[in-house]
Amino acid sequence: MANKISKISESEWEVMKLLWKSNPLSSEDIIHGLSPKHSWSAQTIKTFITRLSNKGVISYKKEGRLYYYFPLFSKEEYIKYENNSFLKRVYDGALDMLLTNFLAEKELSVEELEQLENILKDKKQNKSSD
């Protein structure tokens, strides 16, 4: 993963979801993919594409008169960046505080609790074997 990933807006995230699903895409492909879900104009969507390119989150290849856009980071890499950014910004990096607040506020199903237990057990076993 590159050293610096730029923060993206919720609207830009919509463009990225399309590009993570299928790429490369032309601006027309992106416009057609987003138009049914949002009331954004073609120019607004092109502005999002330009912003993402300027932020270094996407790039393009030119074929004739068309530009085809593709992501420079996987969805997983970006989610990891966002998670770490949120943790640092809101909880000063204190994961235990995040988990404590999350668990106190959210009603979890038995299946979700079991899944969390399994994740914690796996983490603990991996630490023990280090």
UniProtKB/TrEMBL annotation:
SUPFAM superfamilies: Winged helix' DNA-binding domain. The keyword Transcription regulation applies. One of its GO terms (biological process) is negative regulation of DNA-templated transcription. Pfam families: Penicillinase_R (PF03965). One of its GO terms (molecular function) is DNA binding. Residues 99-130 form a coiled coil. The keyword Coiled coil applies. Keywords: Coiled coil, DNA-binding, Transcription, Transcription regulation. InterPro entries: BlaI_family (IPR005650), WH-like_DNA-bd_sf (IPR036388), WH_DNA-bd_sf (IPR036390). Belongs to the BlaI transcriptional regulatory family. This is BlaI family penicillinase repressor. It comes from Lacrimispora xylanisolvens. The lineage of its organism: Bacteria, Bacillati, Bacillota, Clostridia, Lachnospirales.
